Amino acid sequence: MKKFSFSDFGFGVLIVFGLLNLAFNIKHTVKQDEKPVSLEDFYKYTTKKDTVVLVYFSADWCTVCAKMKPLLQGIVRDFNSKKFKVLNIDTARDKEITEELGIDALPVFMIYKNGCREWIYVGLVENYELRSQLKYYL
């Protein structure tokens, strides 16, 4: 018969508390760095002269949107410039913009330059396609 050890008990407790903490943090994670975007803010960003804006419409529940996150992180890193901005629009949070532009599918990518929408894509976009469009307008 194995002897009871507090170290065995402690390890199990650590695992349980670790999993509970992880589950709580995932469920209650708030996007601290992303503030709601008003319609006024949207037009302010997309009408700037000499600036290319990639507008990305997504939602937390959208699995295709979740697949696009690493691509967008890479684009933000690789296209870091004062003449380029990514504007994330959460369709649940930023309903005014979503309704104004008639967004009814996700994800949606739009490229604006000098106040004009130059490109739009709905769905899962390939890395090379999005990057080539951005390079063209930059």
Q: Could you characterize what this model shows?
A:
- 46% of the residues lie in helices and 20% in strands.
- The protein is an alpha+beta fold and 138 residues long.
- It has a 4-stranded mixed sheet, sandwiched between helices.
- A hairpin with a 2-residue loop joins strand 3 and strand 4 (116-122).
- It is globular and about 30 Å long.
How large is the radius of gyration? 21 Å
Distance from N terminus to C terminus (CA atoms, Å) equals 72 Å
What is the assigned CATH homologous superfamily?
A: Glutaredoxin
* CATH-assigned fold name: Glutaredoxin
Total individual domains: 1
Strand order of the largest sheet: 2-1-3-4
Q: With helices defined by DSSP (H or I, 4 residues minimum), what is the helix count?
A: 5
What does the overall shape look like? globular
Q: What is the β-strand count?
A: 4
> Which whole number gives the mean pLDDT?
83
CATH architectural grouping = 3-Layer(aba) Sandwich
- In the predicted model, the low-confidence regions spanning at least 5 consecutive residues are 11-32
CATH class: Alpha Beta
Helix percentage: 40-55%
The computed structural class is: alpha+beta
**In sequence order, what are the helices and strands, one letter per element?**
HHEHEHEEH
What proportion strand? 15-25%
Largest sheet: 4 strands, mixed
Short characterization:
By secondary structure, the protein is α+β, with helices and mostly antiparallel strands. It has five helices and four strands, in the order ααβαβαββα.
